[in-house]
Amino acid sequence: QVQLVESGGGLVQAGGSLRLSCAASRSIFSFNTMGWYRQAPGKQRVLVAVITTGGSTNYADSVKGRFTISRDTAKNTVYLQMNGLKPEDTAAYYCFAYYDRTYWGQGTQVTVSS
Predict the structure, then answer these.
(1) Residue 109: which residues within 8 A CB-CB, separation 6 or more?
(2) pLDDT tens, 36-52?
(3) Could you tell me what percent of the chain has a pLDDT over 70?
(4) Which of 12, 31, 56, 61 has CB atoms 3.0–4.6 Å from 97's, for a disulfide?
């Protein structure tokens, strides 16, 4: 059973920063990809950032240049550093990991006030 535990969400003013963490219950090298989705109230869940086993990264256009996905393989943890936060970044953020299926974390709320 794979578990993904997120942390790091909260309330921040526009222009501020937060770092989300996603700790996996097993080696992150066992997953093809890991990353983050977000879901704002009344909207669909959308992809924010991904990182592959090889370390390649990709971002949604809306967060390029502001968000950075990274990993610490010794801690089996993936991070999402979010800088220059905007009110439109307000959402529940979900970590995911894909191997034989997609595994999800429980979500962490990010609220950006204007």
Answers:
(1) 9, 10, 91, 92, 93
(2) 999 999 999 999 999 99
(3) 100
(4) 31
